Task: structure prediction
Amino acid sequence: MRLTKNNPTGFTVLELLIAIGIIGMLILVGSVLLGTARERSRDSKRLSDLDITRRALEDYFHNNNRYPQAPTPTMLGAEGYKVICSGTPTGFAETRSACGNATVFLDPVPLPPEPQPAQLSGYIYTSVSPNSTYVIDAALEGAINGLQGRVQVSPGGLQVNQ
Result:
């Protein structure tokens, strides 16, 4: 009987290392792109939240001839500032039921997505006496549509806060 030598099958160590290296680079590039996409998504949500809130505040102004008042710069969505409605002296309420039968303009006031940028946490509302205008300060994580860093929303729209 004659024995034949079989050709070895499988991969060499070098081939395995090259394959692992290529997979590692693909994972690294994918995670960087995914992180950037998530950041842009959070910033897009922030801009959308600010626009929704601005529209609700404009509706409030047209019905009440003033903007809601906050005695000090206040984080929107915090306790007492979760709903915008006509049924309270300030224009803000904790719940929809606290507004009674009055017109509700925004329920709930949107909260910024997590994680929040280090420059500013949340959407900070400031009413300017005598409630004839307002400013909402916010911050973006990255750059989107030519905006980056701190931004402000007022009746005039969105602008970069220098």
